[in-house]
Amino acid sequence: MTTETPPPSDSRIDARVLFVEDDALQLMALRRLGEKIVSAVRGAPDGQQGLQVWRDWQPDVIVTDIHMPHMNGLELSAAIKRENPDAQIVVLTADLTDDSLIEALHAGVDRYITKPVDMRLLADAIRKCLRDRDHLKELRLNREITLLNTALQKEKAEHLALIRRLEEAHNQLLQSEKMASIGQLAAGVAHEINNPLGFVTANFSVLQQYIARLSRLLATYAGFENDLSAQERETLAHVKAEIDFEFLNEDISDMFEESSSGLRRVKQIVQSLTDFAEGGGTDFEPCDLHECLETTLSVMTHELKGKTQILREYGDLPMVECIPSEIRQVFMSLLVNAAQAITGEGRIVIRTCRQDDFACIEVADNGHGIPPDILHRIFDPFFTTKPVGEGTGLGLSIAHGIIRKHAGRIDVESAPGQGTTFRVLIPFHRPEAATTTA
Ligand SMILES: Nc1ncnc2c1ncn2[C@@H]1O[C@H](COP(=O)(O)OP(=O)(O)OP(=O)(O)O)[C@@H](O)[C@H]1O
Ligand SMILES: [Mg+2]
Questions:
Q1: Start and end of every Response regulatory domain (predicted)?
Q2: Per-residue pLDDT tens digits for 65-78
């Protein structure tokens, strides 16, 4: 049985208070007292009804007796605190030595007032309860704001990471597209050069034979020089001097030697261009990458010149399905570049490990490094910082083409003055359709 009081007068505290008390006379007295202090009061004769009123009416403060039938004050307090830990509960006690009072305070009841209830003390307790409730509300709000802030920061970091990943993917796509179109261009150029190169090389070798034959004829003529008249010999000597015959005779063979080495180099460059465009094109087979590395190192003694220390940090790698000759070519490019980046003494660390379904091979040197402004160009064909004749600038672009064909990827990190690390990832198994991720 519950009833509500009339509207508040100005001097009263604007709050709703529920009194729970089984003694009807005491409940009435409490309500009267309450009406003088706060704007709205209700009453309930036991814990059970008190809980119901609390749920329906949501009072600001509950003032309850401890000892009551059906549900006592302790049980009521526990039930309310379970549903709302911030609820403000004041217990009434006639005896300060009552064990139940201690129990109530331990169970989270906020305050107590002794019976008979003094109006000033009740008003004071209600005010303090309201203040505590506001304080708790503020604390909870602050906590929620902090949690929200943390969640927002986390979300922001995730967004940033996502943007970074998108940028990376975008850059990789751009790089792959660029490589694909440059590959087509390279294939076209290689094809165009290949034809004239073929007949120039063939003609050159025939020309070499013709010159040899003419030289033989000249030598034969020279044998008859003594049979000529003095005037004829003089004319001949004059022509020989005019055309610098002695020098010409010697220089011809040097020029042939230089020209054929030049032709061989052009042929090699055209072959590299074709390799870059096609990535080599032989068979995939299971391959021990450590063996590949060792074979490559064994043919590199000239490049390493004994000044570079090679440190092997080999992990455990399964057989990898790849085209071994091409993968060796990639290793060779990376190792030669690393060796060339080292002036004086230095070291190259070769690390291998498994990374999910990929074999990871790192070639790290402590050479001069790559300046950030050219880092994005090093995979471009013909990009080189090496003196003319020393580098064609095709090593890395071919390596990129090969790794792309293997559906792997190749990355670089470099700190100028400290060194460079190239990381190659090759899938353990041959891709169904070799797609590009590099
Ligand atoms: N380990 C490295 N340290 C410093 N710079 C490097 C390294 N690897 C590559 N580079 C830079 O990248 C450029 C391109 O390398 P790439 O292998 O494609 O061509 P290259 O070595 O110049 O010539 P090529 O390999 O055809 O003989 C190099 O000229 C060099 O500037
Ligand atoms: Mg190179």
A1: 16-130
A2: 999 988 999 999 99
